[in-house]
Amino acid sequence: MDDQEMQLKVRRVSDKFTESMYVLANEPSVALYRLQEHVRRSLPELVQHKTDMQSWEEQSQGAIYTVEYACSAMKSMTNSGVYFKNIDSLLRQAISMKDQISNSQGRSPLVSAPHAPSSSS
Question: Region Disordered: what ranges (predicted)?
Fold first, then answer.
């Protein structure tokens, strides 16, 4: 065998070997193994992110409820202005009536106490 023939055979063998290694490296089971490795490495971090997000969602829901409750309380307070004006008017009338009663009692003679029922029935 001469040198060129030997180089040709070596080249064929090395090409076949390279092709076999390429096929072996890209075989589906190897790809699945690499995928499994990736999932195994990244899953704990993803789980932690999920629990963090759930915690933040719960806190957000609590804050949203608080804000909505405060808004409804503020709306109720703004709508209660009519009632406070009515209460103010009634209090002023009550004070006026009390003053009238006090003035009328001050001018007239003392009213005698009511008579107790007699025991001869």
Answer: 101-121
